[in-house]
Amino acid sequence: MAMCSTCTSASARSSACHQKVIEEAPSPFISDATRKAMGEQAVALAKAVKYQSAGTVEFVVGKNQDFYFLEMNTRLQVEHPVTECITGLDLVEQMIRVAAGEKLAIKQEDIKKEGWAIECRINAEDPFRNFLPSTGRLVKYQPPAANLEQGSETLVGDSYAAGKFGGVRVDTGVYEGGEIPMFYDSMIAKLIVHGKDRNEAIAKMREALNGFVIRGISSNIPFQAALLAHPDFVTGNFNTGFIAHHYSGGFRAEDVPHEDALFLVALSAFIRRKTRERAAGISGQLAGHEVRIDSDYVAIVNEGEGRKRRHQVHIAEYAGHGGEAEVRVDGKAYKIVCASRLNDIRLSGTVNGKPFTAQAERGTLKKPLAYRISHNGTAIEVTVLSPRAAELAALMPYKAPPDTSKSLLSPMPGLLVAIAAQPGQIVQAGERLAVIEAMKMENILVATQDVKVAEVLAKVGESLAVDQPIMRFE
Asked: Which of 71, 109, 254, 317 is an active site residue?
């Protein structure tokens, strides 16, 4: 196929080791001249070997736009949707037609690049645990609404002149209630967006990630959100060492700072107030003991290890629809309008006139009154209480989690394929303790300090759960 559209990607050490996590087309770095030269080299290679199907030629590009052949794959690759978006071509259809003996109905000069496309690989892995695999049941799987389909040729040509630049596309084979097993690659979906330029594509992708609901397993969505918001990515100033450079110590929650963290607090207070309003309307309440609708609250944000951050919240009286309120957090006003149901995880609306999509859930086994609010990759756990209840909550002692330093715990679900130490054995720091297999990767667990094994608690061949004890040390 005599066609070339160069994309670029960033790499991360994920469960499948240095896989790409973001792809885009066209490249923000490569010039038209370099792109043309690459295409000519790719076509020359295909002709030299008399190749007759769709294929992908990969090059590595230097800082001076000198490029070097890396490999050729005799197939389409994961990132082919970004090329489809900016060209309006269905590459899978073209591949099938060529395989059936048809000639290409298009020439290189017929192919035009329109707009900008970005693809994020949605992987079943925990970015806060060094991208270890995450398996289990998809308790909730609600991708964002898709309005861009494969090979939608109507998205090019006249539609661009009318200002209609693509939208959102989701390629996946999983479904809510399905099982994500340990035997396959960690990628469970591809999220693709198309915009008129790179900035619009980034904005669309951030909003699409906000609306991608995955529960039951961990996903790399927070990490994707952090990459898209990083100043160097936004300006196109990155290379293949981007993630190793900026996240050399691993990925942490504080690596995703929110541009307005008080909005998350305001949204939790909004949900709390609307819940009280709904409860106040329930019939049959005992006279004099009806549910009260308060205007003043204290929002307590859990920062971990017993640390709390408190915010004074006031919700102004208003005359309007039930799906709106003005929330003041430490004096800062947020006019929130949201028609979503209170029990929906995905909430959409406007804040101070600007649209937003966020995720909210109430209650865990340990903290049934807390809300977990997620937006733009940032997640907070916040409890919204009356002032008096907040006073009493401040008196509650902090219960530290149990000490697990004397145990080797499984950091992921997986198959225990090897035990490298036995009871009574002294293991030095850095030596191997066990090997767990999950999602096509062997994960080696090593000692972080000198230890003596007291007991082996799991058997080779056993399927392990997260945090399941494997060994106990003296």
From this structure: 71
